[in-house]
Amino acid sequence: MAQHNELGKKGEELAIDYLIKKGYTIRDKNWRFQKAEVDIIAQKENILAVVEVKTRSTNYFGNPQDFVNPKKIKLLVTAINEYVISKDLDVEVRFDIIGIIKTKKELKIEHHEDAFLYF
Hints:
about 120 residues, alpha+beta, Trna Endonuclease, Chain: A, domain 1
């Protein structure tokens, strides 16, 4: 596996641990619909959090969360609509980004709730 894929997988594991510690239940990981893949689908009370995880080894080129583009957002919205319908859920849906910078010396996790409001 390429090094960047390993970093991404490790980032998703860190994000899951983070969410569980914050009281979320993990419903699905790497859920796919058509061309979209949702990294994490978590739930806390009546909120379904659709979480995109971005992991980087440096912020030299920008913060991890800055790499979620409008095309990705559109794919995630389409996918989660199918998820909610297929599971017959009655929940509020929120789109979050967890940005992780993992270097040899540091681990920084930032959870941005309702992250797509700003796009």
